[in-house]
Amino acid sequence: MHNQISPKRFLASLVLLLTPMFAVAQQAVLETARAELVSSPLEYQLDGVIEAIRQSTLSAEVSGRVEAVNFDVGDQVEQGEVIVRIRDNEHRARLKKASAALDEAQARYDDARSEFKRVQGLYKDKVVSKAAFDKANANLESTQARVEAAHASVSEAQEQLDNTVIHAPYSGIVSARHIELGESTNIGQPIMSGYAMGEFRAIANAPQSIINAVRDHQKARVILLENQQTIDARKLTIFPYADPQNHSFPVRVDLAETDQTVFPGMLVKVSFVIGQVQRLMAPRSALVQRSEVSGIYVVKDNQVSMRQVRTGIGTDHQIEIVAGLDAGEAIAVDPVAAGIRLKSQWKSAQ
Q1: Taking a C-beta distance cutoff of 8 angstroms, is the pair 199, 53 a contact?
Q2: Phi, psi for residue 129 in degrees, rounded to 5
Q3: Which domains does the chain have, with CATH numbers?
Q4: pLDDT digit string (tens) for 94-117?
Q5: Helices (H), ranges, 39-129
Q6: Beta carbons within 8 Å of 53's beta carbon, 6+ residues apart
Q7: Which among 12, 70, 170, 298 counts the fewest CB atoms within 10 Å?
Q8: Residues 215-234 pLDDT 10s
């Protein structure tokens, strides 16, 4: 017959067994990292405005009544799509008339060429005078000029007819519509405005005091205000003159391609690199945030203490420590484990 253990004895045994394990866990070495000085870019931040690199306003190149408007503000247009159609009856009639004039000029030229060849043969045989030969040659050149003029008229009429159909020069978004269905257009009248998606730049005015540094480093990034996302600059174009009113230099910052939602006219922050600076950096995971107070668990001689710190700029993985920490100090990477250790120290000290 087997001996039975009572529940109370079992629990007591379990507590005796686990107590040393808890003690070991409390004395386990915390994972730490060192706060270290890192050379990083020194930036100067300015307000900027987004604009499309490719933006244009299409204008009418012929006169006529608008028969179709296929897109409106906010619509996405593919390159080559028909945006507007202008009534083309008059332009078709002009093309037909120019083509008929070309046929007539070509027929006259063919007759003049045949006559010239006949007179040329007779002139070689000394049957006709040089005056007759010169007359035939002049007639040939005249009819040839008429053919060339008729060809030009046909090309012009064809171009005018083609201009009654307005195509999108590139893929993009319609930003403004300047005409309505049924209106009559004049040459040069605005029809529709738009811009190409994915090709943007920010415009900022750099103070005279930093423009040389901006020119030397040629590096910047754009920060979106609504989500603080950063877009790297692909190219900087510094205007070769300063605004006489505020003595600042306009700078174009072409943006790298991004999946962020960017539109012309948006206000952004533009950070220009103007030098290098030493920053004390710590792992972002080590930072403890309590309301508006930031802290870090410092580990020294296997003892944990909480240190209030002031933070600066950061990345996804690191944060700058402006005050409250020295370079080389060990900090706990896991603040939860460090907090448990600190409570254990307090209990042991009581």
Answers
A1: yes
A2: -80, 165
A3: 30-40+279-349 (2.40.420.20), 43-54+196-276 (2.40.30.170), 60-84+165-187 (2.40.50.100), 88-163 (1.10.287.470)
A4: 999 999 999 999 999 999 999 999
A5: 89-124
A6: 196, 199, 200, 201, 254
A7: 12
A8: 999 999 999 988 888 899 99
